[in-house]
Write a structure and sequence with these properties.
single chain, 198 residues, alpha+beta, HIT family, subunit A, 2 domains, 5 strands, elongated
């Protein structure tokens, strides 16, 4: 059963996701969502394969690989995946691999900052916004690239689009890693200057 906070957060997320619907459909969907109690909402999520009947939250299922995701970065405690309903190109979620809050997972925050640098260098946004929240008791950091002249609008992304973006970002990440490694090697290989005597 959903907790009061989870119920509120999920309803809020669903209402945001229907903003792109045509006006008539949006109003109808909004009324249905607002009328649901916690049990009805959970059943709706299960019936639409948004969650499985399990004790684990959706982010735990993503972390363990039970739900397909488009991973672009990872460390020992967290992973960064593309949001399947992004509000901008490159919208990414950094989540702890274990069911815990961001306050209890400093490596998730570290990963979010590393990922924001990769997104900045890959997609050239004007700014990157980082926001943390808790959904279903699981910490989540939204990494949102912001672009001038592009309004934020939540849209369902296609699998092909997510795969292409994942490939583009991970290639850039590998290139950045290689460049950093080469830079370190070049610095270490510099000849040592002879000791100067006055």
């Amino acid at each position: 059963m959903l907790t009061e906070r989870e119920f509120k957060d999920i309803k809020e997320q669903l209402l945001k996701q229907i903003e792109s619907f045509p006006p008539a459909q949006r109003e109808s969907a909004k009324k249905k969502i607002e009328a649901m109690n916690a049990e009805e909402l959970e059943q709706f999520l299960i019936q639409n394969n948004l969650i499985k009947k399990t004790d684990k939250c959706i982010f735990c299922l993503i972390a363990e690989g039970s739900i397909r995701s488009y991973k672009i970065n990872e460390n020992e405690e967290a992973l960064a995946v593309l949001d399947i309903n992004p509000i901008s190109e490159g919208h990414t979620l950094a989540i702890p691999k274990e069911h815990k809050t961001i306050e209890n997972s400093p490596k998730t925050l570290q990963l979010a900052h590393e990922t924001s640098v990769i997104l900045k260098k890959t997609l050239n946004p004007d700014e990157i916004k980082i926001e943390s929240s808790t959904v279903q008791g699981h910490g989540v950091i939204n990494i949102i690239p912001l672009y001038k002249n592009k309004k934020l609008e939540r849209k369902k992304a296609s699998e092909a689009g997510l795969r292409d973006l994942q490939e583009k970002i991970t290639k850039k990440k590998e290139k950045l890693k290689k460049t950093e490694k080469e830079r370190k090697i070049k610095i270490e290989e510099l000849p040592k200057a002879p000791i100067r005597t006055p």
